[in-house]
């Protein structure tokens, strides 16, 4: 099934629309099942989305928040996705500590991945988890989560979370080691909202949305049955 593509004039408008839809879907899931689960990504554009979500009147009771991926750094490190999430959203809303599930990036990568998978399994059980909403981004190289082009883990559709060495993708120092959700989890989500903005994403986005399916080359082609792209005009320029 082809994804839905929504194009907005500005980065801020795309981020706000993505955040508003996230809250709508979480509220719907909670009304249907009593609880709702959300996995979120890092980066500059999601920061705008989280800041917008923080201004909305929303009851966070019963919402469980997870990370799509994380750099293997402490939670107070400038490159920590969790730090960005905390500063832009969590510190501005009423949500219990037990509702927030972070990757312990201060641990060695493999230990962090095992601990995160155990946390996920404690909430969902041992099967591949089905998140109500997964919010993802896309890099200029078409990576998503921390699944970079050519990464062998892209073939793993049964695992939940693993550590990744992103050296082959040109990542260094604090950006090199990461923990990420795997393809099977991304594909199983009830709803996937992909937020991509900026002209540096335009060529990769063209390939992802128009070229033959090849997630090993274009990881952002990984999709769940209900996938919607939120783009600004700059990112959509080559579509």
Structure description:
The protein starts with a strand and ends in a 7-residue tail after the last strand. It contains 6 helices and 9 strands; from the N terminus they run E-H-E-H-E-E-H-H-E-E-E-H-E-H-E. The model has no long low-confidence stretch (mean pLDDT 96). Helices cover 31% and strands 18% of the residues. The protein has a single domain, classed as Rossmann fold, CATH 3.40.50.1360. With 239 residues, it is an alpha/beta fold. Helix 1 (11-33) crosses helix 2.
What is the fold's blueprint, element by element?
Layout: E1 4-8, H1 11-33, E2 36-40, H2 44-54, E3 63-67, E4 69-71, H3 81-88, H4 109-124, E5 133-136, E6 161-165, E7 177-181, H5 183-188, E8 191-196, H6 202-210, E9 227-232
Parallel strand pairs: 1-9, 2-3, 2-5, 5-8, 8-9
Antiparallel strand pairs: 4-7, 6-7
Helix pairs in contact: 1-2
């Amino acid at each position: 099934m082809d994804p839905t593509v929504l194009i907005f004039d500005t980065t801020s408008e795309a981020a706000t629309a993505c955040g508003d839809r996230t809250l709508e879907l979480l509220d719907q899931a909670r009304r249907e099942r009593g609880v709702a689960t959300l996995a979120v990504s890092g980066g500059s554009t999601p920061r705008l989305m989280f800041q917008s979500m923080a201004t909305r009147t929303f009851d966070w009771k019963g919402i469980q928040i997870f990370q799509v991926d994380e750099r293997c750094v402490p939670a107070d490190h400038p490159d920590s996705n969790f730090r960005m999430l905390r500063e832009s959203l969590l510190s501005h809303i009423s949500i219990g500590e037990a509702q927030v599930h972070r990757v312990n990036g201060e641990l060695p990568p493999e230990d962090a991945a095992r601990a995160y998978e155990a946390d996920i399994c404690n909430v969902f059980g041992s099967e591949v988890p089905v998140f109500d909403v997964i919010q993802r981004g896309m890099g200029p190289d078409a990576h998503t989560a921390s699944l970079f082009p050519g990464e062998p883990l892209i073939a793993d559709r049964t695992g939940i979370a693993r550590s990744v060495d992103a050296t082959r993708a040109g990542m260094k120092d604090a950006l090199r080691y990461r923990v990420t959700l795997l393809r099977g989890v991304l594909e199983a989500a009830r709803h996937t909202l992909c937020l991509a903005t900026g002209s540096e994403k335009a060529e990769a986005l063209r390939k992802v949305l128009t070229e033959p399916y090849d997630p090993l080359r274009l990881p952002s082609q990984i999709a769940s049955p209900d996938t919607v792209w939120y783009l600004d005009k700059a990112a959509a320029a080559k579509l």
